């Protein structure tokens, strides 16, 4: 029987492992600061589990890369990218909110990676990662409910009977500003809520990053990112309110006044980009799932705005030598020309 020892990694497996390495080195730095500042006994256990699991996943990826004679990525380090002695800037409830939202990103990332993996050891690793992020999400959700800080999606009345769409106006009439928009359906409401949550986290993070950043250009980028996140929150909130639904309130947490950096500018830029990319992915899913065409139009327009912000962020990272290049295939044309 052929074993994984003589089966090369596929491009999909290389990409998944490289991405997981970047994200887990990021996570260990963030958890290092959170653990140093956390004062909540209930949070201590979940933070330790998240930290130790990230380190175990890094150890596995590093070993695979060594066995494959694959260069170990740079990623992030506790020595250069996190400052645990910096003053507290987040409430303990923020750590719980952050864990829950990043677990969502992890579930989406690992499920996609798992669907493309073939080699036995990589399949098992990605499946274990998916199971852990799912359990982390469950633990963070349960603790949020226990502490009374859980923000639930809006409630709606149950339908009295099964109905079928009988008119094309269900999809298109809402584009006419003089025509009344039909009520939102449950799927559309869920995506509006999810995108509000993502932007709430982004708004809070970029507010704190703007205060802490060393570089003026990074501070200005974070201010711009915060303004965009807040703008998108207002758009989604208005859509729900116009549908006679209560828009979710923000989390009961706040950003403190410290301006002492807790993280490097490189880490803050990477994390902001990561959340922005997750947001664009959410917008794409929401546009595809929303049957009201005005919603799809909004999502595409807002995704473009996030994409432009991401491009400006990438320019800053390239300028400062912070943007690590993902593994790429050989440039066959260049090789032929140089021969």
TrEMBL record:
Matching entries from InterPro entries are given as: DUF3231, Ferritin-like
For this entry, the protein name equals DUF3231 family protein
Q: Which organism is it from?
A: Aquibacillus albus
What's the domain of life for this entry? Answer: Bacteria
């Amino acid at each position: 029987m052929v074993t994984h020892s003589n089966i090369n990694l596929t491009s999909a497996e290389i990409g998944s492992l490289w991405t997981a390495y970047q994200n887990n080195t990021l996570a260990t730095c963030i958890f290092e600061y959170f653990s140093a500042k956390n004062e909540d006994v209930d949070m201590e256990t979940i933070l330790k589990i998240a930290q130790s699991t990230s380190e175990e996943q890094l150890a596995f990826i590093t070993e695979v890369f060594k066995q494959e004679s694959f260069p170990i990525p740079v990623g992030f380090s506790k020595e250069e990218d996190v400052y645990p002695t910096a003053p507290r800037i987040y409430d303990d409830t923020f750590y719980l909110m952050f864990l829950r939202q990043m677990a969502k990103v992890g579930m989406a990332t690992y499920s996609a990676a798992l669907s493309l993996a073939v080699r036995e050891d990589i399949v098992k690793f990605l499946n274990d990662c998916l199971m852990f992020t799912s359990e982390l999400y469950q633990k963070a959700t349960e603790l949020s409910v226990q502490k009374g800080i859980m923000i639930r999606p809006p409630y709606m009345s149950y339908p009295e009977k099964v109905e079928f769409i009988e008119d094309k106006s269900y999809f298109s009439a809402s584009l006419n500003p003089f025509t009344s928009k039909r009520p939102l359906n449950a799927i559309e409401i869920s995506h509006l809520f999810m995108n509000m949550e993502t932007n709430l986290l982004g708004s809070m993070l970029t507010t704190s990053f703007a205060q802490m950043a060393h570089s003026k250009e990074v501070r200005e980028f974070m201010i711009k990112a915060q303004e965009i996140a807040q703008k998108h929150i207002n758009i989604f909130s208005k859509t729900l309110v116009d549908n006679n639904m209560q828009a979710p309130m923000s989390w009961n947490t706040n950003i403190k006044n410290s301006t002492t950096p807790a993280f490097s500018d490189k880490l803050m830029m990477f994390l902001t980009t990561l959340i922005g990319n997750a947001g664009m992915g959410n917008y794409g899913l929401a546009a595809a799932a929303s049957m009201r065409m005005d919603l799809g139009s909004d999502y595409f327009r807002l995704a473009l705005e996030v994409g432009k912000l991401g491009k400006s962020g990438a320019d800053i990272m390239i300028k400062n030598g912070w943007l690590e290049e993902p593994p790429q295939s050989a440039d066959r044309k260049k090789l032929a020309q140089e021969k």
